[in-house]
Amino acid sequence: MKIVKRALAGTMESSDIQIVVEAGEGIEIELKSSVEKQFGNQIRKVIRETLEKLGVEDVKVIAIDKGALDCTVQARVAAAAYRGAEIKENYNWEVIK
Fold it and tell me: What global pTM score does this model have?
């Protein structure tokens, strides 16, 4: 999957995460989180694994976390990736399980 435009998913509400994707080189993750010391490595791992499962190779991700669970992180990354790749139908949600 190729990211062709900047896209966003998620909110800044408690227990959510805002994900912004844009074209980049490799997988670059910029994370801001109130729980980064405790869970930063896990959040980055979930973001990276979700992108890899979707086949996204060249992307810059800006993630602003407000205590989201892994399943929320996966859903937001997938939604942002599909929007950034301009895929508007035939979503493969099974890939993020």
Answer: 0.91
